[in-house]
Amino acid sequence: MTSTQTPMPDATKVVDSMEQMSAGPYEGQRRSSARGLCCTGTFTPTGDAAPLTTAAHLQHQPVPVTVRFSNSDGNPHVPDGAPVTRGMAVRFHLPDGAETDLLGITVPLFVASTPPEFLALTQALRPNPGTGHPDPAEVRAFVAEHPHLASAVAQQPPIPVGYGRAAYWAIHAFVWVNDAGRRQPVRYRWEPAAGRASLSAQDAASRAPDYLTQEFHQRLQDGPVAFALQVQLSEVGDPTHDPTVAWPDTRKELTVGHLELTAPVVDQSHWSEQRFDPTRITSGIELSDDPVLAFRAHAYAESFRRRSRHG
Predict the structure, then answer these.
(1) How many CB atoms lie within 10 A of CB 96?
(2) What is the distance between the alpha carbons of residues 110 and 157, in angstroms, rounded to a whole number?
(3) Is residue 187 pLDDT above 90, yes or no?
(4) Selection from 122-126, 194-198, 302-306 with the highest mean pLDDT
(5) Spatial separation of the C-alpha atoms in residues 127 and 56, rounded to whole Å
(6) Please, which pLDDT band fits residue 202 given cuts at 50, 70 and 90?
(7) Are 105 and 243 in contact (CB under 8 A)?
(8) Please, are residues 87 and 33 in contact by the beta-carbon 8 Å criterion?
(9) What is the arithmetic mean of pLDDT over 226-255?
(10) Residue ranges of domains in the chain
């Protein structure tokens, strides 16, 4: 059943289900990515994107950034070694005082192609009261009803050695627009300069509950934690509406900038409370026709409202 045939869920219903999925709610916490670390740094564009977009942070001048790394679970007590996805939310502080966000996670595909599918999956992943874990039969039933999502749901996120040793995909397509009005769909990926490195589940279980934060602080003693921003350019026929479908590896890719993170932010509480939003874009960038991308703004706003009312 397509998204035009299935009513769009209300954001409150989706956030309710996310709370139940993580055995919450946890007052004052995000409904997803509750554990996090915020840091500051600089993004330096290569200029290779300038012919394709007028976005200010992708031209030639460096811009400051604030970055939040996180674990995807809504339970803030889940240890860093848990087999969950990690997130990297980047806020670019633009020369005119505006801001734009770019959010990525440690798997290349999203787990649902429409908001109704995502709601159904969160319902299937709710923990069984007897075991405290999702019922495998419920997950199998979901995949049987949505066979096109089997590969996305089966993704195994890596358990990274450190936040700076993982790649982060922005999942959705966005559309770049240049000064001539030409439109180019793109997908983003942050690639760690130090290379990707992960732990086995056994090794991760032996690490401290906050080992990712500890490792990040230790790594900064040797210099900046760095990433390259890789951008994949679409060709005719590549879907822009479905975050569960990858574009071919043969598509042209550009390195459009380099990110250097130099220190934790001074006020962790302030930045941990901020709402990073993948739909916070700037001139020269447009949202694609991806319904999940558009819906995320509503879900994030509802989550922010709930945690803000608890202070």
Answers:
(1) 9
(2) 12
(3) yes
(4) 194-198
(5) 44
(6) very high
(7) no
(8) yes
(9) 97
(10) 37-112+156-305
Q: Return the CATH architecture of domain 37-112+156-305.
A: Beta Barrel (2.40)
Residue 44 and residue 74: Cα distance in Å, rounded?
32
Residue 203's identity, in one-letter code, is D
Round to whole Å and give the CA distance between 1 and 146: 9
Measured between alpha carbons, how far is 65 from 261 in angstroms, rounded to an integer? 8
Whether 4 has a pLDDT exceeding 50, the answer reads no
**CA-based max dimension of the chain:** 60
CB atoms within 10 A of CB 205: 13
Report which of residues 28 and 154 the model is more confident about: 154
Tokens 């822009």 locate to: 240
Prior bond to 115 cis, omega within 30? Answer: no
Among 76, 106, 273, CA closest to 189 = 106
Indicate the pLDDT class of residue 10, thresholds 50, 70 and 90.
Answer: confident
**From CA 253, how far away is CA 102, in angstroms rounded?**
18
pTM as predicted: 0.91
How far is the C-alpha of 233 from the C-alpha of 89, rounded, in Å?
22
* Tokens (6 digits) for 173: 């397509």
Decide: helix, strand or coil at residue 292. Answer: helix
* 3-class state of residue 271 by DSSP: helix
